[in-house]
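Hi R.,

Here are the chain sequences for the assembly we discussed:
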Amino acid sequence: MSILVIQILNSLFYASVLFLIAAGLSLIFGVMRIVNMAHGTLYAVGAYVTAWLMGKAIALGVPLGWLFLLLPVGAGVVALAGFVIEPLLLRPFYRRAEEYQLLVTFGLLLILEDVIRFLWGGMPITADTLQDVVPIMHIGGLVYPGYNLVVIGIGALAAIGLWAGIYRTKFGVMLRATSQDRRMASALGINVGLVYMSAFAIGCFMAGLGGAIIVPSQAAVLGMGVDALILAFVVVVIGGLGSLQGALVGALIVSFVRTAGIQFFPEIELAVLYLIAAIVLLIKPTGLFGNA
Amino acid sequence: MTILLKTVDLRKQFGETRACDGVNFVVHKGEFLSLVGSNGAGKTSLVNLISAHLTPDSGQILFEDKDITFMTVSERIKAGIARSFQIVNLFDGLTVFDNIALSIFSRDGKAGKIISLAEHDDDVRRETLEVLGQFGLSDKTAVLAGGLAQGERKLLDVAVAYALRPKLLFLDEPTSGVSTHEKAQIMDTVSSVVRAGTVTAVVIEHDMDVVFRYSDRIVMMHEGAFLADGTPDQIKMNKDVANILLGVPLSV
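And here is the predicted structure of the full complex:
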């Protein structure tokens, strides 16, 4: 019984991180119709920056509780990068065919991977001090890191915040209008360039936050971005690219299947995920919640 | 009567076709003006030129005595010119409420309050509901625009343009493709907001019954130029107009 509770918590933990990454990917696609190949690497940047900042902060003797503040800071750094990347790198390619956008974001992926390697080298960076700040829980006779519950909470808050931002605020109305018809939105006097830049930065913030919250429990390592990108693609294929609900449901499906897979059929755990994605593509090519 | 809009020798040519052949168009403040003529007469081109969806080859457009010839679409919206299109232009994935609210706060440019809750902004909410009430859409606020019937879509389309609170509102065939009953509803609504003195309307319309019933003044276009200009009674008496409406070629 306690194993089951722990597996459910583990699934929700992965779902939170996956949702953050996939929701950002989906938001960026939904608004500017760009599949951002570098999205997973932006998640990795969030992890590296946060881990590095925590190392510095601990060395400076900052009280451990304050380290939590570094989670949004790490995500904020990635969002700032987004504010630079969108106007400089992506904007010149909106009028071009999709291949160009895929190539330019793939190029960005390669560049960012090398930047990570250049700045932090090939060794993993850990930030597990933060995990130790949160008390350990006892479930049945087993121990479980309380930090994982914090991650689940942050994931839930992010989902609510993003939903409210998109469906309840003026900015959200402009965002949805722009994503439906850029020309019409601009004819109404909406600053489409600013909407694009903000949407991309919010997407980057989500990815960065995903990296920031996972790094206290798993070290930042080279290649983590590409692994995350692949899983995020599975999530959006299942849920529907461009849909927030799709990202949430897709992240839950992928996480639960993956946790069950690791437990019961570890050899084909990833294969089962791809199989689900393939079945969704066959039955409903737009994904469970997609419509375009 | 105060002149609101004036074009001076406005010209636009597409290849050999003269869509606008030296048009001197005057709109007076507070009037309900209908622009009529057969297909290809240049009505939509003239409206496109005035709303900056086309650039003139030559000529000048004056709005409230200011030269707006080189202003962009959004600058002209800010100056007070709004329009609807022949094809309904709505955000189908947004609710009826949001379609109107979007017009209102993109008009106001309330960038500082951009993250505020749209529904909780009392001014926007009140005005949105007021506009929806005027257009008889009060019970549809939470419906997606894509789920409306054709007549309601036309009404909402006009309401979106009206919510920009223009001084001059162009409506391109607001009653095309809707039932006779809905035609009357759309035109009654437009006419009542014009009569309330808040807006001046220029309507492109094919249904001559509608045109004669609602217009203060009618301008007839033919081959990119004005053929007739007058009150409904004057237009009814005009022989050239009658010939065109009956499909008789003009005697040159």
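Chain A has a mean pLDDT of 92. Residues 17-222 of chain A form one domain.

Let me know if anything looks off.

Best,
T.
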